[in-house]
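Recap from last week: sequence in, structure out.
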Amino acid sequence: MIGQGQQGKKIAQQAALTGIIAAIATKMVFGEVDNVNYYNFQMSAHWAAGLGCAVGSVVSDLSSEMVIKRFAINNQIINSSTLAVSTGVCGAASAAVLYFGGLPAQSVPKAFALGAASKLGGDYSNDKLFSPINGIVGPIW
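Predicted structure tokens:
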């Protein structure tokens, strides 16, 4: 069982990695979209998607910890539910941020997939980098 401080650190690391992956992927996938506009506030599309996915990662991880893991059900069902919620929230966050910033509606499924994949990549990267047992920098972190 992870302590409260360690859990918060893990959620923050996953959010940062998810945001970085989303920003890079958005630049690669939607390279032609330079800026998004939010109420006359111009922002780079890849930074907007990165921030949206980072916030989505925090929301999905907290909802998994506070809601899903509190049910008295099988761990396999909990893990599947957590995966579905995490990828769905990050995908929705990415799609919403880019769509409401001016991305065409036909690109929304691609933006959703980008956000969901970024969450998976962020969680995987966090496990491989910061795991206390076999992570690259985990034992010294």
